[in-house]
Amino acid sequence: MTTTLSKTPPPAKRRLPAPVRRFLGNKLAVIGIVVLAIFAGAALLAPQVAPFDPAQIFFSDLRAVPSAAHPFGADELGRDIFSRVVYGARVSLSAGLISVSLALVFGGGIGLVAGYVGGWLDDLLMRVVDALLALPFLVLAIALAAILGPSLQNTMIAIAIVTAPAFARITRGEVLSQRERDYVQAAQALGAGDGRLIVRHLLPNISGALIVQTSLAIANAILAEASLSFLGLGIQPPAPSWGSMLNAARGYLTDAPWMALFPGLAIFLAVLAFNLIGDGLREALDPRGRVG
Amino acid sequence: MAVFALRRLLSAIPTLLIVTIIVFAMVKLLPGDPARLILGQEATPQALAEVRRSLGLDRPLPQQYLSWLTGAVRLDFGTSLTDNSSVGRLIAQKLPVTLELALFAMLISLLISLPAGIISAVKRNTWVDRALTLLALSGISLPNFFLGILLIYLFSIRLAWIPASGYTSLLENPGRNLLLLLLPAITLGIGSAAVLTRYLRSSLSETLTQDYVRTAHAKGLSVGQVTAKHALKNALIPFLTAFGLQLGGLLGGAVITEQIFSIPGFGRLLVDAVFTRDLPVIQGVVLVSAVAVFLVSFLVDLGYAAVDPRIRYH
Fold it and tell me: CA angle, corner B246, sides to B245 and B250, nearest 5?
């Protein structure tokens, strides 16, 4: 747990900041962190963790039942499902992290500009953001993925585009509410320029809302990536992706249900981990939300 | 009220116009030539030019946009590139199927979220609340395609109670229609039930801490009476908004659900169009789903104004 201490001041003050203490006191959030750590470890150390190459075909093991050799069983081509789930973590986590980072930078940037500059630019940007928000998330992601063509990179771009508007909305709202506060006025009066004002004063104060949103957005992005590859619009075979593994499993539900079970559980647990963390962060960073 | 409705509708127009620009521009970015898609790889340049002209693709983009827009306003979204049928008619055929599925799913999600949200709020910060919170977050995290597959495995393969796929129209055989839609509706409804439970928990727990609720307790009313008669009424307003806003998510979820259960709805139409690169259909489906989301949020706002006398619009 000492890793979370990296930003805390010298040992004289040993108590963790209140939000960190609240977060660590939330059992569900800590479970989320542990689950996420397991997935991250599997993704980073995939070649060491996975017993086989995810694309290696064993003709003797077609749809093999889970056993010591294949803990999660084997798929319709005799590939080891455990190894494919482990390598699939790379696809899912990188899709989640990269698309949400893009959305955070672009959406957050747009929201910052709109809220800070205001006027007609704000009106225009927010109209576009509202229009994008009116399009159902998955419908738009499917259409964009289809337009860009199926690949992991395009999936990430499509998800980033549909995720960015929410970041723009939240950032703008936070900037608007902060910029009228006394401390901002004071900094301005003391001669702080726009850049300094944004970086030193505004960003630290709106980061709480953005951190919560980032965690929840990663959960949604992982779901969206899995949905797109389930439909065949994501990363292409033979690359292992949890969504496409589930899609392939549909044809063998009667005699090889494990083909669906393990990738499905992997998606569920990874998404749940980010949702638990996001929920814990929200309660920890915004005590107003806590009642009773 | 009428004035408010009109104002609210007018104020949505600029955003809707931007939606149409996005939908139009999106498809124009698509690599590939629709004319070649229709005629195939061996088409002669003359034939290609001919088809392009008949589709209006040789005109400047703003002109193409305007004629597409004026068509769309009259519900004419062009003709499908695969079988020449009218996109408007295709959507009109498929939309009712998806609407029925979505309504069924919303009913299921209400049946789950109302009791779960109320219990969670009344028993907040107890183990019951924590268990329901974990269940709700699990419901949000469960991909509907995985849930659908689990339901098919359990009810269609293991227990053999319900056929795994197929569709019968409501008019033809209502009983069979509902039976076949039951698993898809559960698949689609669980996710929104989970979201709604969270909303109801937070809005009801906030109401439960208000002074007037404390007064009601002080008068000696039971917890049940206070919750049902005093707190719930006010907590339901944000809940209903969230309920209305679920529609966008349901339309997206329906794409996947219809795919798993082979239901010939709106979502299937989109997926099929995506694989055949049927641009007019993709445009039509995306636009209609955005308009549907707009309409529902408009109705929710009207309902809001009608129900809550504190809300005044000028």
Answer: 135
Spatial separation of the C-alpha atoms in residues A110 and A104, rounded to whole Å: 10
Q: Does B113 touch chain A (CB under 8 A)?
A: no
A288 DSSP assignment: G
What are the backbone dihedrals phi and psi of residue B212, each rounded to the nearest 5 degrees, phi first?
-65, -30
DSSP state of B210: S
C-alpha B193/C-alpha B243 separation (Å) is 9
Give B200→chain A minimum CA distance, Å.
14
Give me B247's structure tokens: 């529609």
d(CA A94, CA A225): 10
Q: Which residue of A has its CA nearest to B19?
A: A131
Inter-residue contact B127 to A28 (CB < 8 Å): no
| Closest Cβ–Cβ partner in A130, A142, A271 for B274 | A142
- Report the alpha-carbon distance of residue A67 to residue B215 in Å, rounded: 63
A253-266 pLDDT, tens digit each: 888 888 889 999 99
Asked whether B15 and A134 are in contact (CB, 8 A), the reply is yes
CB crowding A46-74: b at 16 or more within 10 Å, else e: beeebebebeeebeebebbeeeeebebbb
Q: Write down the pTM of the prediction.
A: 0.86
Question: B46: Cβ–Cβ under 8 A, 6 or more apart, which residues?
Answer: none
Burial label, B268 (beta-carbon count in 10 A; 0-12, 13-18, 19+): buried
Report which residue type is found at B18.
Answer: I
Fill in the DSSP letter of residue A51: S
ipTM: 0.83
* H-helix or E-strand spanning residue B54: helix B45-55
Q: Do B150 and A264 touch (CB under 8 A)?
A: yes
Task: Tell me the DSSP string of B232-297.
Answer: HHHHHHHHHHHHHHHHHHHHHHHHHHHHHHT--SHHHHHHHHHHHT-HHHHHHHHHHHHHHHHHHH
Task: Output the average pLDDT for chain A.
Answer: 86
CA dist A29 and A7 (Å) reads: 20
Task: Please identify which residue in the block is written with the tokens 């227990």.
Answer: B159
